Every structure is written in structure tokens, then in C-alpha cells.
Amino acid sequence: MTEPTLDQKPVHWAAKMHAREYNEGKLSRREFLTRATSLGLTASAAYGLIGLPAPAQAQASAQDGGVLRVQMSVRPLKDPRTYDWSEMGNQTRGTLEYLVEYNSDGSFRGMLLESWEINEDATQYTLNLRQGVKWNNGDDFTAEDVVRNIERWCEKDAEGNSMAGRFATMIDESTGKAMDGAIEVVDDHTVRLNLPTSDISLIAGMSDYPAAIVHSTYQNDDFTQNVGTGPYLLTELEVGVKCTLERNTDHTWWGTEVYGGPYLDRIEYIDFGTDPSAWMAALESEEVDMLHESVGEFIEVLDGLGFVKSEIPTASTIVVRPNQLAEVNGMRPYADKRVRQAIQMAVDNAVCLELGYSNLGRPAENHHVAPMHPEYAELPPQQVDPAAAKALMEEAGMLDFEHELMSIDDDWRKNTCDAVAAQLRDAGFKVKRTVLPGSTFWNDWTKYPFSATNWNHRPLGVQIHALAYKSGEAWNEFGWENAEFDALLADALKLADADQRREVMAKMEALIQEEGVTVQPYWRSLYRHMREGLVGTDMHIAFEHHHYKWGFAA
Amino acid sequence: MGLFILRRSGVMILTALCLTFIVFFLTNLFPNLEKLAKTQGNFRMSDEAVISWLTKEGYMQPLPVKYGQWLGVLPGWTLETEDGVTGRCIDGTADAATAADAPRFCGILQGDWGYSTVFKDDVSTIIATRLGLTGKLMFWVLVLMIPSALLVGVLAGMREGSVTDRTLSTFSIITTATPEYVSGVIFIAVFASSAVGLKWFKGTATSAMENANFENFFLPVLTISLYGMGYIARMTRASMTEVMTAQYIRTARLKGVSFPNIVLKHALRNALIAPFTVIMLQFPWLLNGVVIVETLFNYKGFGWTLVQAAGNNDIELLLAVSVVSVIVVLVTQLISDIGYVYLNPRIRIS
């Protein structure tokens, strides 16, 4: 690592500020690293800023060779753009690679793309392809291949093609295909995308599991025969039973020079059904070396058995929110900002995490942007003060009002609502809990006056805000309409550069907190257990398996 | 005798026809077809898309026609589209000339068992592999179950009411009263998990599919055998006690034959007639137990295939599973009837 930043630009001022904060003990080492690297610093430069030597890269200590057995459900494969399970992407990822790789720290790095540039208002993307990449049949990987794949993604009429949603900006409504001139070949290794409106989420879309890059000879009948650019070959696929990836020894993989690896000779996916106790039995009986995901109570049990745990915080979360438009007994109880603020002030997010989700996550800050989001801006911590909350509620004249907190009938969502309700009662509010069965809960989920909803991880913070916090959106369950926020969001959605977007995001986050839009108590973490002696096999934030990083410790 | 076998075969074919028709009818109910369309296509398909998918795949034809096609007595459907011809007997989309060359009939009468929508493979290959794996499991179950059941039964029945009898009877009642899903879980907890800490065996039999050894295969074998063992042992005991009170046994004792000799030379042969039938009748029960045990131990045999096929409404695979089950049940009964004649000369089949 010679250059301090990924794009060879000067070190960001905020990284130096965070280094000072670290030295003053305000930031943990891990927190510092996350922030500094998301500001574009390389990991070793980040360590250098705080005067620590970079740890020897885990990859470097992986030995060559070995067979890794992994528990994962083995699914039937279909056209990658119609994939609906991340497992499918993992089965083909060894062969069919992606343009961009999404990493657990929330960053994107080029795979088949060497780099990309996005113009000021995010209407023009220049994709620079990596030089020297070859398909495993000997063909060169060129701009033609990228254009063909993006055109495939834009075919809206193809049954089940979910990539069309990610690339909707550049699809012509009338033809259901990519617009004329939207995809432009500049030269053999450069492709330009010209968009009619701003869209900063295309790079994220290219990293998602249905975006596997396929060859011109691609077919759906026999997946072991497909040509790809990756270091492994899918040699065996028995649905529901087993899937084997073998190192392709006849093919020189581009990534060995760039990122190192691959190390393993073979990767075997073995299907142990859907029962987590069977997964545990498999790991315990040494039938597999690693699980795809550890869930629920088994996390603690597997910890107890001495397996190595890998944890990754995600932006999957729950919001316990009042709906500002909802009417109860002829009035709108949550239209008053003071009522919402009082609710937020009375709830300690750490308590919700502990009681609602057994501490399997990280506390959140009520604004629905997580630390791994590139545009995350840190705000001063909020105060939990039940006494002040009660005073505020009294001032609003709503202390006698009985809040009805509704939740779905399941484990963690119900428990979290119970924890919120208990804290509201402690603050002196009247709260009634209603638990609805899963079959009826979703019919009206956006309209309940006070209820809880779970939200999945998305790579960019603005994506969630655009879906759920913008005025009038179908999924705006908060009933929140704020012109100032909408204007800020419109600005942010044009800023492809995360640093510029962060400045706007800081205002948006503050506004969501200030308005008391929601209680958003914690971020859920994902877990994976494995036996000792594996390297590079950490849990991934979006369940992806990056096979070339995997290996046995030397 | 020949006529008897012939009549039994007739019954078998009739039963198979009736059963497959029932399965066919149930799997072809519209909600099931809709589920199939959505799992094969896409979960967010609209109602029109579901109908168009089903029509395209030939599922919207009348039930008797579809059943006839599956049997191979009616010609398979064909559909002409812009890209070419698709059909039951054609792989993928073919041009008109290839389509004309394709066979008209392709049902089980022609040896074509169809294509599994879950496993994306030919049904005949799946059934052959999975039945082979279950065969391996069954073989070891029988090797363990029959000798131990007979031994327990004979020992218990030798002296009715003795301490040995009471102990062994209690043991066999307990084992036969414990269903596989209870005993299997207990065995895993005691012998395979760190909860008790014995860890003698492995709690999953996945690796036994390729490479079975005592460590990874004993628990599933034991779980199935124990259940059947108690039942057979009870039957053997009953039969043995009856024989032991017979006149000729008393005569043998009076003339001074030693007790081991009475049991081995005089009693045993006659006492084993009844258990033979019971053992043959256990086969259908074993198929039943296999479904639970294979799922529990993640051993991907015939029972597991049944669970997967039923869970995903995989019509042709489910039909093949039913046909095989009918054959297994009726063939074992046939063997039991014929074998009985040879063991017991007092019975004649006319």
C-alpha cells in the first residue's frame, strides 16, 4: 500500500479529525477505522494516522489449497437477473463475477470494473473496465460484454427480472428496454451510462447478487457449462443436496494480481435443510467447517461450544413509530411534535436492544442511517430523560391519552414493542399493547396510529429515506410530511460523492430526530460460526460469499 | 399358485392406478398449481401471469387428459409459439421438424417418468439414486432389527413370567411405544451433542450417503430399528410362549431332552412362522419411519424426497414416489403370503 487513499486524492480532513478523537479516547479503534476507510483511506493509512502498525493482512497467512465445506441451502439456479435468494448468487459467484463488490464496511470496490466516475448531478456514469480480464474460454472481457449485460438487466418484460427495478431510470417505458443512447461504448474498456435523471444507486445495484456478469454463450439448461471470468468452476449441482465449486486450474484469474487468492482447491456447499438445529449438528459433527448464517438462540449455544463467531452489524432494523396522520377518537394524537418527542425521550434504545433482541445488534440513533452507510454523519447523542418526557407530554396536554401500541405476533418485534411500552409506562404514560397475527398485520401496516415495522438493509442511507420518509411515499408509514426534508433529500439524491452527501445527510438526520419521527432503537447484526483456523470467511453484510478470500490458516 | 401371483399383480396395478389418480387430482387442484407457478416463475406474479405460465406448461388441460398423458395412453401436448414448438415430449423449444420427429406418447408406459420441478432433473434418476440410499439404510436396519428382535422375543418367550421375560417385555414395549421423532431426538441429544458430552456418534447422517461408517450411520439405523424391534419381539414372544405350552414340548421334556435342545430343535422353527409375517408387514411401516428419520438426520433418501416433493407440489416426482410405495407395500405382502405357505405346510393357497 503506497497511496494513502483509494483514489489517490489527499487525505480527507474528517479522517484527521477522527484520528484526534481516537487519541482523546472519544472513538473506539474499530469505529475510527470504519469512518476513516469510508472516507476513502486505505486500511494501512488509517492505522498510520493513529500511530498503529497495520495488522498483517489475514489473507497473506492463508495457505494454498484445501477443501472447505459450508452449510447452505442449495437452490435450483435460473437466469441470474431473476435470482431471488442470495444463496443462488453464492453458488455461481465463483464463476460468474460482478462488476462491483459490496463489502461489509459499507464500501464498494471494483471487480470487473477498475474504477468509475460519476458526474456532478449523477446523470452520467463512466465505467472503466479492468484491463487484462479473460473469460475462462479464452475470450477477452470487453466493453461489449458489459453493454450486453446492462441491456439484459434493462429488459423489463423478461419474467422475474429484478435488475429492471434497479436500473429503472434508464429504461424506456414504451419499449421496456434500455433507452436509446443510454449505454454508450467509449472504447474497448470504457462504457458510459447517460441517464435522463439523477440516480446515485446504480453502483450499489451492480453489486447486488442478481447482477452477475454472463458470457454471450450463456444458457440456463446446464449451469456447470457456463463460461465466466471467475477463479472457480461450478462442477456439481444437486439441488437440495450439494453444490461444488472447484478451482479452475486452466484459467488465469485476473484477481490474483490485484486482490490475491484464490486459496482453496474446492468449496462444497452442503444442504442441511431449514432447521437451525440440523445446522448446529452438522457443525458439531464436523460435517461442515462453517455455517452460512447462525440465528436466534443458537448463536449463544454455538458460542458456548467454542466455535469462532463472526458478527457484522447491518442496517436491518425496526421502527416503532407513531403515524402523524392517523386519527384516534376524532383527533390526531401524534400530529403534535411534543407528543412524538416525549415518546422518543422516554425510550432508551439500549434497553430495547437488550430486551427485544437479546443484544444481538447495535443501538441506533432514531434517524435510520447506520454507521456503515457511506453518508452516515455522527450526531451528538440524544438524551433519555423520562421525567422531561413526562413534563413535555403534560405540556402537550396528552398525559391522559391512552396510546395503543400494535405489533405483529412474532418473537423479536413483539418483544421490542413490549420493551418500548414498558419504558413509556415507566415515564408515566398510559399504554395498551395489541398483538396482531401475521396474517392480518400487513393489511394496514402503514396506517396504524402507533406500531412497529421491520426494515431491511440497504447499501445507501438515502435509499431508505427516499422510500419511507419522503412526503406522500407509499411506504411512508410515519405520515410525516416535511418540505424542508424533501428538499434536502432531493439534493442528496443527486450527490454521488459520499462526503458531499454526508453534509446534507447530517441535516436530514438532525431533522428526523428533532421532529421525533420515530423510535428506531437498534441495528440488527448477522452472525456466522465456523471452526478455528479459517481466514477470510467473515460474515458478509449482504450474505455474499467472496470465495477468493477464503482459506485455511497457514 | 401362478394364478394367485397373477391376481395379486392385478390388484397391485389397480391400487397403483387409484392411488396415483388421487395424488394426481390433489396436486392438480388450482391452488396447488398456482403455488407451483409462483415457485417456478416468480413470487410476485400477477394472476394473469400465473394463468399464462400454466397454459404454456400444459397444466390447464382437463384432468383426465393430463392423467392420460402422464400414463402414456394419450399423446403428449404440444404448443406452437413464435419461437418454435414446445411440448410434453420435447426438450425446451424445438423447430417444427424436430418436433415432428419427437415421440407422440411419453408417459410411464413408455418409461418416461417425467421431470422434477424442484430438483431440475429426471424423476427416474432421482428415484433411482434416492431409493438406492434408502435401500442401504433399510438393509442395515434389517440386519440390526431382525436378529435382535428374534433373540429378545425367544428369550422372553422361553419361560413365560420369569424375570427375563418381564424385563425384556418391558424393554420391547418401551421401544415400540416411542415414536422415531422422539427417540431420534433423544439419541442425538445423548450420544451426539455436547449437551451430555458423550459425542460417540454424529448427529447427522449426511456424509453417510457417500461414505457410511459406524459413527455416522448407527444412530439413524438404531432409531428406525428400535421401533420395529419392540413390535416384532412382542409377536415372537407370544408365538414362543404358545409353542412352549404345546403337547409335543411337554413330551420332549418328559423324555428328558435338555432345555436348550428343546428350544433350538423343537420350539424355534414353529415359533418363527408368525414373526415372519410380521416382519414382512413391517416394511410399509419402515417406509413411514424413513420419512421422519431421514429428515431428522438429513439423510437424503426416499423419505426425504417425498417430503421435498410434497412440500413443493412437485407433481411428477410425487406420483413416482406413490407408485414406488405401492409396489413396495404390495410386493412385501405377496412375499409374506407365499413364504407363509412354505413355512407352514398346513396352509394351502389354491
UniProtKB/TrEMBL annotation, chain A:
<comment type="similarity">
    <text>Belongs to the bacterial solute-binding protein 5 family.</text>
</comment>
<dbReference type="GO" id="GO:1904680">
    <property type="term" value="F:peptide transmembrane transporter activity"/>
</dbReference>
<feature type="domain" description="Solute-binding protein family 5">
    <location>
        <begin position="109"/>
        <end position="456"/>
    </location>
</feature>
<protein>
    <submittedName>
        <fullName>ABC transporter substrate-binding protein</fullName>
    </submittedName>
</protein>
<dbReference type="GO" id="GO:0043190">
    <property type="term" value="C:ATP-binding cassette (ABC) transporter complex"/>
</dbReference>
<dbReference type="InterPro" id="IPR000914">
    <property type="entry name" value="SBP_5_dom"/>
</dbReference>
<dbReference type="Pfam" id="PF00496">
    <property type="entry name" value="SBP_bac_5"/>
</dbReference>
<dbReference type="InterPro" id="IPR030678">
    <property type="entry name" value="Peptide/Ni-bd"/>
</dbReference>
<dbReference type="GO" id="GO:0015833">
    <property type="term" value="P:peptide transport"/>
</dbReference>
<keyword id="KW-0732">Signal</keyword>
<dbReference type="InterPro" id="IPR006311">
    <property type="entry name" value="TAT_signal"/>
</dbReference>
<dbReference type="GO" id="GO:0030288">
    <property type="term" value="C:outer membrane-bounded periplasmic space"/>
</dbReference>
<dbReference type="InterPro" id="IPR039424">
    <property type="entry name" value="SBP_5"/>
</dbReference>
UniProtKB/TrEMBL annotation, chain B:
<dbReference type="InterPro" id="IPR035906">
    <property type="entry name" value="MetI-like_sf"/>
</dbReference>
<feature type="transmembrane region" description="Helical">
    <location>
        <begin position="170"/>
        <end position="197"/>
    </location>
</feature>
<dbReference type="InterPro" id="IPR000515">
    <property type="entry name" value="MetI-like"/>
</dbReference>
<keyword id="KW-0812">Transmembrane</keyword>
<keyword id="KW-1003">Cell membrane</keyword>
<keyword id="KW-0472">Membrane</keyword>
<feature type="transmembrane region" description="Helical">
    <location>
        <begin position="137"/>
        <end position="158"/>
    </location>
</feature>
<feature type="transmembrane region" description="Helical">
    <location>
        <begin position="12"/>
        <end position="30"/>
    </location>
</feature>
<comment type="similarity">
    <text>Belongs to the binding-protein-dependent transport system permease family.</text>
</comment>
<feature type="transmembrane region" description="Helical">
    <location>
        <begin position="272"/>
        <end position="297"/>
    </location>
</feature>
<keyword id="KW-0813">Transport</keyword>
<protein>
    <submittedName>
        <fullName>ABC transporter permease</fullName>
    </submittedName>
</protein>
<feature type="transmembrane region" description="Helical">
    <location>
        <begin position="317"/>
        <end position="343"/>
    </location>
</feature>
<dbReference type="Pfam" id="PF00528">
    <property type="entry name" value="BPD_transp_1"/>
</dbReference>
<feature type="domain" description="ABC transmembrane type-1">
    <location>
        <begin position="131"/>
        <end position="336"/>
    </location>
</feature>
<dbReference type="GO" id="GO:0005886">
    <property type="term" value="C:plasma membrane"/>
</dbReference>
<keyword id="KW-1133">Transmembrane helix</keyword>
<feature type="transmembrane region" description="Helical">
    <location>
        <begin position="217"/>
        <end position="234"/>
    </location>
</feature>
<dbReference type="GO" id="GO:0071916">
    <property type="term" value="F:dipeptide transmembrane transporter activity"/>
</dbReference>
